[in-house]
What does this fold into?
Amino acid sequence: MTNQRAFMSALLHRVASPAVVFNPLRWYPMAHAAADAVTVDTGDHVWDLVRLAWALRGDITATTVPIGEFTGSDSGAVVVWDSDAASRLFEALASDSPVPQDVLDAAQQ
It folds into this structure.
């Protein structure tokens, strides 16, 4: 996960660089490749992805669902979420409000 975050960060920094933004021969193919790489609604346009990428620049808080415990079963290893913290995380995301710091702290453990 750490490597994925580092890769995405480097990719977004490169995409937002003047060498790409001010050169249509670079940003146009990049925007179409991004559109082909994700599934979007039929009413969406490539510009919606550009606006999303622009909104993701800056400080981003990355986290995971807080884990309650690791256990085993007949099926193999099982990860059990911390139900309370996970509910609070999803409620914050659904309401577009800040994730409580204690939930972020729980996810880092």
Q: What stands out?
A: The first strand starts at residue 67 and ends at 73.
